[in-house]
Amino acid sequence: SQISGLTVVVAIVVVALFFALLIVVRPGLYGVLKAIGASSRSLFAGVLLGPWVAARLRRRYPDEAPVRTTVVAGLGIVPLCLFLPFAPGYWSALCAAALAGLFVNLTLPVVASALADSTPNRMHGIVASVYAFVLTSTGIGLAPTLVALVTDHILLSPARVGTSLGFVCATTALVSLPVLVTAARLYARRLEAARS
pTM of the prediction? Predict the structure, then answer.
């Protein structure tokens, strides 16, 4: 159940960042964003850096490293999302969005391996399906609703949707951090139990 909670939180952050990226992306610069990992279609830099970060974390947290990588990503996402709506110009917003996308993409390969490592072989397909379902349904249902609620009922102005995106993204990433730390500890216990 902790992995499911982790999945929901990661899904919220991913979707909020996607919508934040829609604000700053211009067609001529779309390739730049894709190359550095800000687009969900091209995960190049984030996917390559995720296992590298996990390997570095494995020195200190041997069993928790894959899940701790998501904590690192969350710590990187929070300030970038807070900065995004207040960026002084287009290029600074573009860079913040690209880096936030990189941090989101950093988690994808390590979450997949953590799910595979923590479940019995006969359940890999079921766990992958549940993960994909939760990620997709949360992204389609919860994230846009949260942004709309904040825009309409807290900020009271559709013109401030960028601020709403930054606030929702940063808040969900910040709230996810204690959940992710707890999940990392539970993940380590799960692996230890599986070994014995």
Answer: 0.73
